[in-house]
Specification:
- It is a single chain.
- It is built from 14 helices and 2 strands; from the N terminus they run H-H-E-E-H-H-H-H-H-H-H-H-H-H-H-H.
- The protein is mostly helical.
- A two-stranded antiparallel ribbon has the order 1-2.
- A hairpin with a 7-residue loop joins strand 1 and strand 2.
- The N and C termini lie far apart (66 Å).
Length: 315
């Protein structure tokens, strides 16, 4: 009887101990999901709800004031035959291609220079090169508007001073050069993050790899190809993904500098959405454009995330 009592007592104590331990871990019996409620509330209020409303508006004909009218897929049918939409979409695709290439190459080149080359004031140069990344977009837009100004701009003044005055252009007024000019301003702000990511990757490379490559007679170019580049393969996919999404989302520089002009030569999807919603007051059609832009961003993200997965498997 005493043995049965002791066994039963031990079992009851073990169960009580487990219950008490679980209650302690959960903060006195409170579900851990309750701690996530504030984050879920913010996420739902500022992302899920606006996303739902945009999708809803895309099926309506509405100017933002009068009565809403359900039109089904009419806005999407109009979008499919809208030459301005496809022109803006093409500009975004061109921008994305250049945005993947130019800031990535500049960032990688500066990272190699700042990590592998001996120099004084290395930290100072890193801060200077990263500075454009933290500047407000409106400041960047105003600065580059002044640089491209045909009357008092720094770019044309430099071209005149070095004897290349024949290359002067009305940069922001040219249907040929306006989009590349704004892209240069954007790339100036985008390479800083790429540089920082590559610097972090290159600093993790053990110096013994370079010593072994030197002993084997590898040149600087061969060291770059066979030692450095394999270590930046994974971070490069992150850089490409960030720059691709940034290129699809570009708005502020284009809006402030040209607002899509001249003659829609710099029109991008985000600016076209703004024009439809806030200038033309066609909220339904602008929302359809916003949904199309969101789908493009999601597809691009999925593609580059898949690319990142392939890079990690092959590393």
């Amino acid at each position: 009887m005493a043995e049965r009592f002791s066994v039963g007592t031990v079992r009851r104590r073990r169960r009580a101990s487990r219950v008490h331990g679980v209650g302690s871990r959960l903060g006195g019996g409170v579900s851990p999901y309750l701690y996530l409620l504030p984050a879920f509330a913010v996420y739902g209020a500022f992302f899920l709800l606006p996303l739902y409303r945009i999708v809803e508006y895309s099926f309506l004909k509405w100017d933002g004031y009068s009565k809403q009218k359900w039109v089904g897929f009419a806005n999407y049918e109009r979008l499919a035959h809208d030459p301005l939409f496809w022109r803006a979409f093409r500009h975004n695709m061109v921008w994305m291609g250049a945005g993947i290439t130019v800031p990535t190459i500049i960032g990688l080149g500066l990272a190699i220079l700042l990590v592998r080359q001996p120099m004084h004031g290395r930290t100072y140069y890193r801060a200077v090169f990263f500075l454009p990344q933290v500047l407000a977009s409106i400041v960047v837009a105003i600065v580059w508007q002044w640089i491209y100004s045909p009357s008092s701009g720094a770019l044309d003044a430099v071209l005149r001073d070095v004897g290349l005055g024949r290359f002067q252009e009305a940069w922001l007024g040219s249907t040929t050069w306006a989009l590349p000019a704004i892209f240069v301003a954007w790339a100036w702000t985008a390479y800083g993050l790429s540089m920082v990511i590559f610097i972090a990757a290159l600093q993790s490379v053990d110096e013994e790899y370079f010593e072994a490559a030197k002993i084997d007679g590898a040149s600087r170019l061969q060291q770059l190809r066979h030692v450095l580049l394999p270590f930046v393969r994974r971070p490069m996919t992150v850089v490409i993904l960030v720059n691709a999404i940034g290129a699809l989302q570009v708005f502020d520089l284009v809006f402030v500098i040209t607002n899509g002009g001249p003659a829609n030569a710099t029109l991008v999807l985000s600016v076209y959405v703004y024009q439809n919603v806030f200038q033309i007051l066609d909220v339904g059609y602008g929302s359809a454009n916003a949904v199309a832009l969101a789908i493009a961003i999601v597809l691009a993200s999925m593609f580059f995330l898949r690319l990142r997965g392939m890079a990690e498997r092959n590393a």
